[in-house]
Design a protein that fits this description.
The complex is a heterodimer of chains A (697) and B (509). Chain A has 697 residues and is mainly alpha-helical. Chain A is built from 31 helices and 4 strands. The chains are: A mainly alpha (697), B mainly alpha (509).
């Protein structure tokens, strides 16, 4: 199909804009911004075309490039997998990236930043890498672009390299995610060694499978006991399911790093050192989203492992709560948003772990919109505030910048989960899935779900609180500084993207209004239909990536079962009511504490808890200690050992031979009679030896 | 004929450069070395397109490309010949040698300011020997070139080096020479116990692979003893822990263009010889000893990386990280799988390019700042943007960033070693341990970059810092392009490598 023929251009266009901006950006108007806007705009249009083709029942899974042609060994290729999941993600990434490019005109160009070609080159490469990751049809290609995404985050977080903070934050972001990627890489190598392929979905020709995918092979091995195609099992001495769990958890290492889940979340708040549009891109659509997307992409592999599911759900639930509590006390607007990002991705992990594949993709979509909006809104505020990010210096911006205020409010209502804004629908579905599967599933997995659900539910209250604390401190009350009294104006290039996203944040939840669908019986849960596909034939049969299939696996293999404390519809409504109530309670508490013309800090009332929260539970401290307090001294000690012992032995041997040489040299005395004596003695000795050996005596 | 021409051009060119005035020596040497560089690119192209020598030079000598065999000496019943030829292993290494020599010579224009004609003459003489090492298929000829590399290297470090150059040069020379002696003893113990009539490497390979009834000494088969002695001899060159201590000293004292050759090509002599001798001629013994050898490789990876973490001198950092990178090669070789051994060979080429690039970049910075110490300078990105941009790219190449050559080499090694039959159930564990190197390497390179390249500008030494000259940056750009080209399309080299490697491995992952 024509759209699929042009699909590689979705990735290549931003890559071209990277090259153009890098090498010709300083000779172009706007420092290469126009190239980036054109490229991402083109990618967006192509992505829409792809999405429309997919909506018409099209799908695509083909190799496009052979990276390493194996001779008597596994061949490694690049290919494109275009199905509803990747088509949706393409839309998200290209749309956010396009808007971020436009916003950057206001945030970077209008502020007379230097190094614009480098900035736009970075954005272009970042977008291209993420798009390459999204369309990847196999795990190795996904890993490679995943790493390139990491490189781009390094380059962009460290954009302002002349200061001390950004290079340090960039280093930390790359290093912490690299630590996660270490496990991911073992997982990739292990999956290739085990299955001989890293394909996410089977490749079919005329209805025949010509290359099987690893999730399907794993499924056959676990469900039907077909282990002929599975290598490695004898080597590791594990059952198929246990080994697949190990592999799944290894890959999860990369997910935890990139999606900033506990305990590898520490890089993300530091990453706020980067330019704010970059933060929007990283948090909404690219790097952080990559981790969660990967789990969704190979969900069939996780759906057959109850242990992996429990781990994902618990990490997600815990991170959602843990990060939300840290967001309560932050003073800088971007810090609040940073912790909210960690928390929101926790919800997606919770959904994936507890069998809510659609809920996770739904929340990924809505979050992309409202988090991009909130970051860009914060960026607008930061421009207005002359790059002062402290909320206690703001206040009263509501009247001065109405477009920013109303759009930011739309994003905040979505984040807090207030009906009918986007976040309400998706967060509610996440919690609902965790709840019913917690009730229905037996044994440890069910318990894990209920624990994770409880943590996620509690986090709703905190989310409502920190979101509205942020809104009140930033926009309401009296201005608390001179810059807030006379904010810098922003132009169309800032307001335009905000308006687009503001409308979307209010409406994008309507793609999957499950409670309304249940109540009215109308088929308006469009995302459900999008990800499930037709019941017979079509892409679900060919690619085996439909949510129906995943639900079957969850039920049959992992025994994830839905259970309802009330009947189905009442449970759904009660769950929605509880999470909405908690969100409103959180928002109400923030209103009570921070409303009014001159709000005061209440965090001192938390006592020692405040210190703990301000220090982010000392997570940074122990990780920095691991690097500088443990690894570095160990390296120094090894260096001492190397210099002293290993090299000491080498020098010792040479000293011994030099010493020996100097002693033997004394024989060379230069006195002729001595030499004559030695000669005679030598001759006698030789004769004696020959005599003894030859038997002359 | 082609190989002979390369040897002749560099050898006579070396003499001509030595006799030329200092003023022109650098330019002349670059022009001379461009001939073998361009010629080897053409040979590479012919090899690639005509698939000449599709096989292993030692196992199927009839298929070698650019082969030439002329009887030379008849020594005590052993036929010695001028016998050269290339296969998929030696072709990429030969091209690496000639290209890197030219670039190293150009990169020497700025820092080398005394006795230029001798310096460049020795560089070209070293190139002759290196070409010979990779092309020779007769042991005697090979050994002449092998030892021939030491002589120019000794003088290049000892005359143009840093403050402790004499110590470093002598240490390098004695250490590697003793190693050669041990290797020689191990090899000839085998030669004398088989009925060889020729010292051609293919004949040796056939004789050793089929040797039966070898004597045993103290319960060990002579094959095992010879293997260990030869491994020791070559491992010094690689270098492998704990035989590596000559390397940091040599690197720190050597002038940068010499470091480029040392890290880029000379270390590969060790792994190349291991592949040709230990892992081809004594393949069965190598497989039997796979687990301890893999442990040596893994320890080298982690040990080298940890030591790199402790260094402040940029050159020492790269030197120790070379030990780490070469440890991967050992792991890949012992796997005896196509991707393991093939990846190891690819890694030799990839690391040759990347470490050469890294040393060259450090050299450009040193030429400008006259210090290499992390902490003595910061914020260089502001003053020399292109150099720093290439530094960052090279560092990420070193960290194994995908679509750069290092990733391909490392990934293939990991893939080949992860389920290697030779390592049994230890394979996934040892491979996973080795992989941790990719985290540590990111640690020390990112740390060094943050300290030296970024932040506000400051410099302890008293020099003016500005953008580097074109002829300083151009070799960096060429190398970076090669690194990216091999990362995007590894098959440019990996295809021919695999054809030469698979006869050794007999299938598998």
């Amino acid at each position: 199909m024509a759209a699929f023929t042009y699909a590689p251009a979705i990735v290549l266009l931003p890559f071209v804009s990277f090259l153009v901006a890098l090498f010709a950006g300083d000779r172009m108007p706007k420092g290469g911004a126009l190239a980036g806007i054109t490229a991402t705009g083109g990618s967006l249009l192509l992505s829409i075309w792809v999405a429309l083709t997919v909506a018409g029942g099209g799908y695509h899974n083909e190799f496009v490039y052979t990276w390493v042609a194996g001779v008597e060994s596994v061949t490694l290729r690049f290919g494109l997998l275009l199905d509803p999941l990747s088509a949706l993600m393409l839309l998200i990434v290209t749309l956010i990236s396009f808007l971020v490019h436009i916003f950057s005109l206001g945030y970077m160009n209008d502020e007379d930043e230097t190094g614009l070609p480098r900035y736009y080159a970075g954005l272009g490469l970042f977008t291209a890498s993420m798009l390459g990751f999204v369309v990847a049809n196999n795990l190795l290609m996904a890993f490679m672009f995943f790493e390139l995404v990491g490189l781009c985050s390094y380059l962009l977080i460290g954009f302002w390299f002349r200061e001390d903070g950004p290079p340090s934050a960039a280093k930390k972001a790359f290093l912490v995610t690299r630590f996660g990627d270490y496990f991911f890489l073992i997982g990739v190598v292990g999956i290739f060694a085990t299955f001989g392929t890293g394909l996410f979905a089977p490749i079919t020709q005329n209805g025949e499978v010509v290359a099987q995918s690893f999730p399907v092979l794993a499924e056959h091995a676990v469900v039907d006991g077909e282990t002929e195609a599975i290598a490695m099992l004898d080597t590791v001495g594990l059952s198929a399911q246990a080994w697949f769990t190990v592999l799944g958890l290894l890959v999860l290492g990369g997910v935890v790093g990139k999606s900033a889940q506990f305990p590898l979340h520490t890089w993300l708040p530091d990453a706020m050192e980067g330019p704010t549009p970059v933060s929007a891109l990283i948090h909404a659509a690219t790097m952080v989203a990559a981790g969660v997307y990967l789990v969704a992409r190979m969900y069939g592999f996780y759906a057959i492992s109850p242990t992996a599911l429990a781990v994902i759900a618990l990490i997600g639930g815990f991170t959602a709560l843990f990060a939300a509590t840290m967001g309560l006390v932050k003073q800088e607007i971007k810090q609040v948003l940073a912790y909210s990002t960690i928390s929101q991705y926790g919800y997606m992990m919770l959904a994936l772990g507890s069998g809510g594949y659609i809920a996770a993709v739904f929340h990924l979509t809505t979050h992309a919109v409202f988090k991009a909006l909130l970051f860009l809104g914060a960026g607008s505020v930061i421009i207005a505030m002359h790059h002062n990010e402290n909320m206690w210096d703001m206040g009263g911006l509501k009247e001065k910048m109405p477009v920013t205020y109303w759009t930011f409010l739309s994003g905040s209502l979505a984040l807090a989960g207030i009906v009918p804004f986007a976040g309400f629908w998706s967060k509610d579905e996440v919690l609902y899935e965790a709840l019913i599967h917690g009730f229905g599933t037996e044994g440890g997995l069910g318990t894990a779900y209920l624990v994770a659900y409880a943590m996620g539910l509690l986090a709703v209250f905190f989310t409502g609180f920190y979101t509205f604390r942020m809104v009140y401190l930033t926009f309401h009350g009296d201005a608390r500084s001179d810059t807030a009294r006379n904010p810098h104006g922003v132009r169309w290039n800032v307001k335009g993207p905000l308006a687009v996203l503001g409308v979307l944040a209010a409406t994008v939840g309507f793609i999957n209004m499950k409670p309304v669908a249940k109540l009215t019986g109308a088929h308006i849960d469009f995302l459900h239909a999008w990800l499930a596909g037709p019941d017979e034939g079509g892409w679900p049969a060919a690619l085996v990536t439909s949510s129906h299939h995943y639900e079957g696996l969850l039920h049959d293999v992992a025994h994830v079962t839905a259970g309802y404390p009330l009947n189905e519809t009442p449970t759904l409504l009660a769950s929605a009511a509880v999470s909405l109530g908690l969100a409103l309670a959180g928002a109400g508490a923030a209103t009570a504490l921070y409303r009014g013309s001159d709000p005061v800090e209440h965090t001192d009332k938390l006592g020692s808890l405040k210190t703990l929260l301000m220090h982010n539970y000392y997570q940074d401290e122990y990780q920095v200690w691991l690097a500088t307090g443990l690894t570095y001294p160990l390296a120094r000690a090894m260096d001492k050992f190397d210099q002293g012992v290993v090299d000491g032995v080498v020098n010792g041997i040479s000293s011994v031979s030099l010493f020996g040489g100097s002693r033997i040299r004394r024989i060379q005395s230069g006195v002729v009679s001595n030499y004559a004596t030695l000669l005679t003695l030598g001759l006698v000795l030789l004769l004696a030896i020959f005599g003894l050996a030859g038997g002359w005596f | 004929m082609w190989v002979a021409a390369l040897l002749a051009v560099t050898l006579f060119g070396s003499a001509a450069v030595m006799l030329s005035p200092d003023r022109y020596a650098g330019k002349l040497a670059a022009a001379v070395s461009a001939v073998p560089a361009l010629a080897s690119v053409y040979m590479y192209y012919v090899f690639l397109t005509q698939n000449g020598g599709a096989g292993n030079a030692l196992l199927s000598p009839g298929e070698v490309a650019f082969g030439q065999q002329i009887p030379w000496i008849d020594l005590a019943g052993y036929q010695i010949a001028y016998y050269v030829g290339l296969d998929g292993v030696s072709m990429p290494l030969l091209a690496l040698t000639t290209i890197l020599t030219t670039l190293a010579i150009v990169s020497a224009w700025t820092p080398i300011d005394e006795r230029q004609s001798q310096f460049y003459g020795l560089m070209l003489f070293m190139e002759t020997s290196l070409i010979g090492v990779f092309a020779a298929l007769d042991f005697f000829l090979w050994f002449v070139f092998w030892e021939g590399v030491l002589i120019p290297m000794y003088f290049l470090i000892g005359v143009w080096g840093g403050p402790r150059r004499k110590y470093a040069a002598i240490k390098f020379f004695v250490y590697t020479n003793v190693a050669s002696l041990v290797m020689f003893a191990g090899l000839f113990a085998l030669v004398f116990n088989t009925d060889l009539t020729s010292l051609a490497l293919p004949a040796m390979a056939e004789a050793f692979r089929n040797a039966s009834g070898l004597p045993t000494i103290a319960g060990f088969s002579l094959a095992t003893i010879s293997f260990v002695l030869m491994f020791f001899g070559f491992a010094v060159k690689v270098p492998v822990f704990p035989l590596h201590t000559w390397l940091p000293d040599a690197h720190v004292e050597a002038p940068t263009p010499v470091s480029v050759m040392l890290a880029g090509v000379l270390l590969k002599m060790g792994t190349y010889a291991l592949l040709r001798f230990n892992f081809t001629m004594l393949a069965e013994t190598a497989q039997a000893l796979a687990v301890p050898l893999a442990i040596v490789g893994v320890v080298s990876v982690i040990y080298g990386a940890m030591l790199a973490l402790a260094q402040r001198d940029l050159k020492r950092i790269v030197a120790y990280s070379s030990i780490s990178s070469m440890g991967y090669v050992i792991l890949g070789l012992v796997a005896f799988t196509p991707h393991g051994m093939g990846g190891a060979t690819f890694q030799m080429v990839a690391h040759g390019l990347i470490s050469g690039l890294m040393f060259m970049t450090v050299g450009v910075i040193y030429n400008t700042t006259h210090t290499r110490m992390v902490g003595d300078m910061s914020g260089l990105a502001d003053r020399m943007p292109w150099t720093v941009g290439i530094f960052v790219a090279a560092a990420f190449g070193y960290m194994g960033l995908p679509l750069m050559a290092g990733f391909a080499g490392e990934f293939l090694i990991f893939q080949g070693a992860f389920d290697a039959a030779t390592l049994g159930s230890a394979a996934p564990v040892l491979t996973s341990l080795a992989m941790f190197g990719i985290v540590v390497v990111a640690g020390y390179l990112l740390w060094a970059m943050q300290r030296t390249l970024f932040g506000g500008f400051s410099l302890e030494t008293d020099y003016e810092v500005g953008p580097a000259a074109f002829h300083d940056v151009a070799p960096l750009a060429v190398l970076l392009l090669l690194v990216i080209a091999l990362g995007v399309a590894p098959d440019l080299s990996y295809d021919m490598i695999q054809h030469a490697i698979t006869p050794l491995t007999g299938g598998g992952a």
